[in-house]
């Protein structure tokens, strides 16, 4: 069987480079390009050296781990033991995900048990499985594995980031209290232009028991100006609390949002309590998030000064 060392070297060079760059992305590190290239050349050279029978010691576990640690050191340097360990774990995680994708796709596209048995050999009481991968197939499977890894990691980080900005919201209107989970959005700069009252946004569906169906339909159809004007509406106890707040949507012109004036809003986050009565609650006709993680968007000015007595 002929082995083309140049093709093998090039393939390993690209694979090692992709793994190192993905590791850097996962750890939020921006290594210098020459470091990534040097480490990739080092790793690809190791694979080529493994072809020589005289260097069979390169197959031992300790040597493999040593070479991988040197690759990580070349790429990222050594700043602290904790950071080096974290980078090493990320490097191995990327490798395992990519290898799993290659193996999974290899067996996924097999057309029968005959193909499986042709890859299995029995020798000396042990079983050996042989993978016959073309370079294009290998590259495609590897890229898919890396893409899946990055997608899953991105979603996890997004959820963690959102979780750090969630808070419990309690709204008081008259004698009633209403609770939900809110997201503190520092980009929310919505104010009532007349009174400069901050506006937090909440899903209108949370108020379906209190708001008449005609009003709910107007909110969902974005025809709230007709509601305030009293056209085709029925009165209800909160009608005097309703306000119209103009705002400009993304890639849209000026619009109006229906808002309700509560007696007070209490926000609890990380043991601290923030309470204010100077706020309007804008009613959104849709869902703020598909998975229901939060039902309100909290204005950042509402969590500036904790109430007295909070932890």
From TrEMBL:
Source superkingdom = Bacteria
One function term, GO molecular function aspect: aspartic-type endopeptidase activity
> Which spans are transmembrane here?
58-78, 90-109, 129-149
Q: Active site located where? A: 185
Swiss-Prot/TrEMBL GO biological process terms: asexual sporulation; proteolysis
UniProt keyword terms in alphabetical order: Membrane, Transmembrane, Transmembrane helix
This protein is called what? Peptidase
């Amino acid at each position: 069987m002929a082995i083309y060392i140049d093709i093998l070297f090039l393939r390993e060079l690209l694979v090692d480079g992709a793994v190192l760059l993905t590791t850097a992305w996962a750890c939020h590190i921006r290594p210098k390009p020459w470091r990534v290239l040097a480490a990739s050349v080092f790793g690809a050279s190791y694979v080529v050296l493994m072809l020589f029978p005289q260097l069979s010691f390169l197959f031992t576990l300790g040597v493999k781990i040593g070479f991988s640690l040197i690759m990580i050191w070349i790429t990222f340097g050594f700043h602290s033991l904790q950071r080096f360990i974290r980078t090493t774990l990320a490097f191995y995680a990327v490798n395992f995900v990519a290898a799993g994708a290659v193996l999974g796709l290899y067996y996924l596209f097999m057309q029968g048990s005959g193909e499986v048995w042709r890859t299995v050999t029995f020798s000396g009481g042990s079983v050996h499985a042989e993978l016959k991968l073309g370079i294009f197939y290998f590259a495609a499977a590897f890229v898919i594995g890396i893409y899946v890894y990055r997608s899953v990691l991105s979603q996890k980080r997004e959820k963690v980031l959102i979780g750090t900005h969630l808070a419990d919201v309690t709204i008081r209107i008259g004698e009633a209290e209403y609770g939900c989970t809110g997201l503190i959005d520092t980009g929310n700069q919505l104010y009532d232009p007349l009174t400069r009252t901050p506006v937090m946004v909440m899903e209108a569906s949370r108020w379906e028991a209190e708001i008449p169906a005609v009003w709910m339909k107007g909110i969902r159809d974005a025809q709230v100006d007709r509601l305030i004007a009293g056209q085709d509406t029925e009165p209800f106890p909160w009608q005097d609390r309703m306000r119209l707040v103009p705002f400009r949507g993304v890639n849209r012109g000026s619009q109006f949002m229906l808002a309700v004036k509560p007696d007070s809003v209490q926000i609890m986050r990380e043991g601290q309590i923030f309470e204010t009565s100077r706020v309007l609650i804008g009613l959104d006709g849709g869902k703020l998030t598909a998975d229901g993680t939060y039902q309100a968007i909290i204005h950042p000015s509402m969590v500036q000064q904790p109430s007295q007595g909070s932890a």
